[in-house]
């Protein structure tokens, strides 16, 4: 089903690092590469990843593309001068899962002259956008009557654009002498989705990305991270790249077939227009259980209002930026193999996908589950990673991780500035924390891993963040 294998993936990483570990030992190994007083350069890149008309959106179970409100982009940077190049990229797609995520990392690595263990690709998670899983696409193609998950010609075209964009950017790399960090509070955007519970703590109703129920909207924000964080790279006093991190589902409304980067993308584009000489990148943090539902009734005017609030958060965060010389730079990785829920049956999933009486959504979605089970059986790991400069640390996590992971990461190193980007490899779908499994609710019902994922993720974060 795939040109990618665990052996190919890990062998490439092993060859690049020169480690003596065996392939099996590598599966959950830690890697760290520190450069002191690095001679850094940065090359920013961007390219359009808007799907063509008729292409599936959000996995094929909402209206396909009929038009465009604004474009989707992939935006990132290549850091040079600290060992092999490091690539970090944000993509305006719902998700990149399994082999699709590995394919993106491989393409960017090839173009940058590095290895995939030094590439992080994170999705922003808009829903009027592609939700790409090559493995699930192969599964549904075998049915003959289901809409595409992602069209392969378009997917490969995006990989070609990625290679060309990085190749064109490298000769234009500029020196990085300073780095800065700050944060600003965002008002009236994020709210916890899992807020309505019975006396036993069970989820009664979910407050989604939009919510028309005034009772649910009147309830408390719940557990969120109210701060938008910014990390910026400078050549002396010239700001080159500004990376913004905030945790919420980034949808105001969707399902109308009109492609949009939605309110977070609109805010980013406004800031980019104001500062054309600096590349602005937006990352969605751990937002598996966080959305704008308290402040969004789903009507169209709310998109612009939410965009303005994110934009204000970016401005507030950037006001506090104070560049300091880069003293050292570290790139760390940690591979995990999350435990699969024992309730899943390959036979039952296959029957559900093949049952033509089921709706498209109830046939396409199980294809993602089956793809994940097949991946875990092959022991193809997920890579967590972290870029660390001075007292600044980024954290790149997979899928729809709950906000508690982001807050936990900050508690692991409270004296450090930690900016978290989730929605990396989306293979596991939702990643709740262990204590939320007994509460049930939508997110838990569609999580592919059992509660043991909590310990695996937490250990991975500790390995990355501990000095």
From TrEMBL:
Protein origin, superkingdom: Bacteria
InterPro entries: TAT_signal
Protein name: Neutral/alkaline non-lysosomal ceramidase
Natural source organism: Gimesia maris
């Amino acid at each position: 089903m795939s040109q990618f294998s665990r052996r190919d993936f890990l062998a490439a990483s092993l060859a690049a690092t020169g480690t003596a570990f065996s392939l099996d030992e590598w599966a959950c190994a830690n890697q760290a590469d520190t450069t002191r007083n690095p001679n850094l350069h940065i090359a920013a890149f961007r390219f359009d990843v808007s799907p063509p008309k008729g292409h599936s959106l959000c996995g094929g179970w909402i209206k396909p593309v009929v038009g465009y409100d604004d474009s989707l982009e992939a935006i990132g940077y290549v850091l040079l001068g600290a060992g092999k190049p490091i690539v970090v990229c944000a993509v305006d797609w719902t998700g990149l899962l399994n082999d699709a995520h590995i394919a993106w990392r491989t393409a960017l690595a090839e173009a940058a002259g590095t290895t995939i263990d030094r590439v992080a690709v994170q999705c922003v998670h808009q829903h009027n956008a592609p939700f790409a899983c090559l493995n699930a696409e192969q599964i549904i193609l075998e049915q003959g009557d289901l809409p595409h998950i992602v069209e392969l010609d378009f997917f490969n075209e995006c990989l070609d654009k990625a290679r060309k964009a990085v190749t064109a950017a490298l000769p234009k790399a500029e020196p990085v002498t300073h780095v800065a960090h700050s944060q600003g509070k965002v008002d009236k955007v994020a709210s916890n989705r899992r807020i309505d519970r019975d006396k036993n703590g069970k989820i009664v109703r979910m407050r989604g990305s939009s919510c028309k129920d005034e009772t649910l909207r009147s309830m408390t924000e719940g557990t969120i991270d109210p701060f938008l964080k910014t990390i910026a790279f400078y050549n002396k006093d010239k700001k080159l790249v500004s990376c913004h991190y905030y945790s919420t589902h980034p949808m105001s409304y969707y399902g109308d077939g009109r492609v949009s980067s939605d309110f977070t993308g609109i805010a980013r584009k406004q800031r980019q227009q104001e500062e054309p000489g600096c590349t602005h990148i937006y990352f969605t943090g751990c937002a598996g259980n966080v959305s704008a539902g308290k402040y969004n009734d789903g009507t169209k005017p709310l998109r612009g209002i939410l965009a303005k609030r994110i934009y204000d958060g970016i401005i507030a965060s950037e006001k506090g930026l104070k560049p300091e010389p880069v003293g050292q730079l570290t790139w760390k990785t940690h591979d995990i193999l999350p435990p699969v829920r024992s309730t899943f049956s390959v036979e039952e999933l296959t029957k559900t996908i093949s049952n033509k009486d089921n709706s498209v959504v109830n046939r396409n979605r199980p294809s993602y589950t089956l793809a994940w089970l097949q991946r875990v059986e092959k022991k193809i790991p997920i890579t967590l990673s972290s870029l660390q400069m001075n007292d600044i640390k980024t954290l790149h996590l997979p899928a729809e991780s709950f906000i508690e992971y982001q807050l936990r990461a900050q508690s692991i190193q409270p004296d450090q500035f930690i900016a978290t980007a989730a929605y990396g490899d989306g293979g596991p779908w939702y990643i709740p924390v262990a204590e939320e499994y007994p509460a049930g609710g939508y997110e838990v019902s569609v999580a592919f891993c059992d509660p043991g994922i909590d310990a695996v993720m937490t250990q991975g974060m500790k390995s990355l963040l501990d000095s």
